[in-house]
Amino acid sequence: MPMDSAPPRPPSPAAAPAPERPRQTSARHTFRQRPLRASLGFLFRLVCALLILLDELARPVYRPLVARIAALRVVHAFERWVAARSVWTILALLVIPYATVEPLKFVGLIWIAGGWEKRGAALLVFAYLLSFVLIERIFAAGRPKLMALPWMAWIIDTANALRARIVAALRLDRLKDRLRRTLTGLRRRIARRLR
């Protein structure tokens, strides 16, 4: 074996191309590249957070009324009827009232901000009542079928995760407990005065 033949060397690091790293995009980079998309995304998250915050704060106020309405026979019959429908019918039954009720909440807030406090408050109360009674009953009855659609399951799971993050970040559980105790005390005081 000749001495001048050396074993082959591995290629030097400079000769081999470096593997590409996935590019990490910061919020600033995304905003520079796509300012409209980033702004709309931020606005969407802000609107969702506002809706979730309002829903979570209004829920303890409406809970006793919603529980009474949900216990009615006609509501149980309606839930059975919804559960017997196809997934696409349930989706239509859910989307139509949702698309009308959610904008009403914003109109109510705009009216309140514009100086029409009574009209805005009345519209807000009506929209939340309709939302908690009608939309939640349709959703509760049709949820198993809706979860069979992968994209709808993703939307539901994402909304639940976002709600949980907002509730945890803002410590809404404590605030809701305080609100619940205040309402209970208020009901007792009103009941005592009415006797």
From TrEMBL:
Composition-biased stretches, type Pro residues, lie in 1-16
Q: Where are the transmembrane segments?
A: 82-101, 121-139
Keywords on this record?
A: Membrane, Transmembrane, Transmembrane helix
Q: Where is this region: Disordered?
A: 1-30
- What is the protein name for this chain? Uncharacterized protein
Question: Organism source for this protein?
Answer: Ancylobacter dichloromethanicus
